[in-house]
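Problem 12. The chain below contains 145 residues. Write out its predicted structure in token notation.
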Amino acid sequence: MKSFMSRAALAGLLLSASMLAGAADIPRTQAPAAAKVFIVSPADGATVDKTFKVKFGVEGIALAPAGDQTAHTGHHHLLIDVDTLPAENMPIPADANHIHFGKAQTETEVTLAPGKHTLQLELGDKNHMPFDPVIVSKKITVIVK
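Solution.
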């Protein structure tokens, strides 16, 4: 039984490693020259309630759901309190600090603990990959009451 478990664990590790290696092979989508993304609201430096609305803006590129094959489209990813942008050769992570909007949403409600927080948008392509070059907004700071 121990031998079976060891083989199963090894097989799982090898599968995970091959999936990660395969992700690095996903080609990046060229960003349209005029594409830009920005946070419409709240304003940089704003004081907000614990739960507040974030509105996303985009120019020079259309929005489409993740997986949509339409050329020159992408979808938003909201980066909360992220110091370093995600790796350019891997899909943008999905966790509490990297929130995906794969249905091409243009706003969301966020609930954060009191204090100072940063918000930034990154546009991902149909595979959640960063564009080449990356399309990111200016990072803003909000103060949560």
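Discussion. DSSP finds one helix and nine strands in the chain. Students who got a different answer should revisit the alignment rule from Section 12.3.
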